[in-house]
Amino acid sequence: MTGTLTEKILSRASGKAVSPGDVIEAKTDIVAFHDLTGYHVIEVMEKANMVKIFDKAKVVVAFDHLSPPPDVRSAEIQGNIRKFVRENKLPNFHDINVGILHELLIENYALPGQVIVAADSHTTTSGAVGAFAQGMGASDVAAAVITGKTWLVVPKPFKVNLKGTPGEWINGKDVALELLGKFKADYFNGMSIEVFVEDPKAFPMDYRATVSNMGIEMNADTLMFVPDAETRNFIKGMRGVEVELITPDKGANYEDEYTIELNRMEPLVAAPYSVDNVRTAREESKVPVDQVYIGSCTNGRISDFAIASKILKGKKVKTRCIAIPSSYEMFKQAMNRGYIEDLVNAGCVVTYGTCGPCLGGHFGVAGPGEVIVSTSSRNFRGRMGSNDAKVYLSGPSVAAASAATGYITDPRDLQ
Ligand SMILES: CC(C)[C@H](C(=O)O)[C@@H](O)C(=O)O
Ligand code: SF4
């Protein structure tokens, strides 16, 4: 039998040949939670009187949402989780100085062919390295922490082909927005998206992580890039290990497929209040902007900072601009390459490794009536603060260009 990537991974994890629609019990390779949901995961385990852990090495905990704690309640929650981590001797714990969970999973843990579940919807991000990664609620994650297993409905596979090479200002976000604009936010419900990249070098891991991250905005169960030379090089570069690549069989069956010609793409935005309200940045070029946010587990990686610094170096921002690399590692890389200095000199406020303004938590919450251009994942009403704020999602090139001019700006139109 020929299998898709989804079928091959889930067959391995469940110990039997699977097909779309099957309800299966799958072994989990990594189970993870963060401060905000970890609180509930632990509560579920304690209430059930089942505080045991299937494999301590396979549980990952990171502080990112309430981090560093903006209030007493958040500090208390983090304190309780630290205690749980200490008492259960969990080795893979990342306190406030490491970064956003999904970024840490890609940098340090996720491998092609794994099944990863975590108590956060953007767990799909690990699909970038070819893992079947799905976000789940706290109870399901608690069950996986205890048993090392989870139940799943095998999704229907959909194939996306990325052809050619993206232009200078195009990034993974534009591909995600293109898919959202074309198919809308609920089309991929019950499906897994498998992305085939024609030229592995043309679409690097950072871009892949952005697209996989937004897989959940497309309502897909997961969004995986078929592992290739880029996957191998990325993991070797980050962790010094060689990985085995798992790939779909030739002739595997997909529900449908869609091809994107990368060289024909233009910088896109998602206008308020929906991720699939997609337009070109040029169509929105009259909109004045109050604040720009460059960061989050969607677009806070080194290539995002490279683009932002290329645009803002030597300029002064005309909006408030907040820039947050998604992890300490990304911060250090951006610092060593001079990007942090460029952004600070341009007038940006920079910190690292927190969800911060992405979900209106802290570090730059949107005020009433304000217009925000953000590289993060969601733009529904109230997402980044006030219900009356308007959030436009974009990639880093449009975000940085908009900070430079004070209006939504396609970087090709910068003087
Ligand atoms: C708080 C958490 C449960 C949530 C998620 O699951 O995605 C958050 O990370 C988000 O991006 O909205
Ligand atoms: S950065 Fe935003 S999208 Fe990512 S986990 Fe944090 S709140 Fe969710």
TrEMBL record:
This is 3-isopropylmalate dehydratase large subunit. Residues 21-406 form the Aconitase/3-isopropylmalate dehydratase large subunit alpha/beta/alpha domain. Its EC number is 4.2.1.33. Pathway: Amino-acid biosynthesis; L-leucine biosynthesis; L-leucine from 3-methyl-2-oxobutanoate: step 2/4. Catalyzes the isomerization between 2-isopropylmalate and 3-isopropylmalate, via the formation of 2-isopropylmaleate. One of its GO terms (molecular function) is metal ion binding. Keywords: 4Fe-4S, Amino-acid biosynthesis, Branched-chain amino acid biosynthesis, Iron, Iron-sulfur, Leucine biosynthesis, Lyase, Metal-binding. [4Fe-4S] cluster binds at residues 297, 355, 358. The keyword Translocase does not apply. Belongs to the aconitase/IPM isomerase family. LeuC type 2 subfamily. GO terms for biological process: L-leucine biosynthetic process. It catalyses: (2R,3S)-3-isopropylmalate = (2S)-2-isopropylmalate. Binds 1 [4Fe-4S] cluster per subunit. It comes from the Archaea. Its cofactor is [4Fe-4S] cluster. Heterodimer of LeuC and LeuD. It holds the Pfam family Aconitase. It is an enzyme of class 4 (lyase).
